[in-house]
Design a protein that fits this description.
By secondary structure, the chain is an all-alpha fold. It has one domain. It is 86% helix and 0% strand. Helix 1 packs antiparallel against helix 2. The longest helix is centred in the middle third of the chain and has 51 residues. The radius of gyration is 25 Å and the shape is rod-shaped.
Length: 93
């Protein structure tokens, strides 16, 4: 790289533009990670709510098999949603 005293106006503009683009790129990446984490929070919350509802509906059934199956389904939903969100968060960071 050349020193500031020997840079041409074009080199100065290119250096300034490159630095600005690099900073913009870093901000875009940071904001995208934030948005991804918010999306994952909503995803997890939605599936937790769905699992809770499934469990409550099953528990209200007088048939023991129905409540057992819905409890297992709710647990599977929570486990899968949690594992997916954890893996996605690992990739985001």
């Amino acid at each position: 790289m050349t020193t500031a005293a020997s840079e041409t106006p074009l080199e100065t503009v290119l250096d300034t533009t490159t630095a600005g683009l690099r900073e913009l790129n870093e901000r875009v990446i940071a904001e995208t990670k934030k948005a991804g984490n918010v999306t994952l929070d909503v995803y997890e919350s939605t599936f937790r709510t769905l699992a809770d509802l499934t469990e409550k509906v099953g528990a209200s059934s007088p048939v023991e098999l129905v409540s057992t199956v819905t409890a297992a389904q709710a647990k599977a939903t929570r486990d899968l949603a949690g594992a997916y969100a954890k893996a996605a968060r690992t990739l985001l960071n």
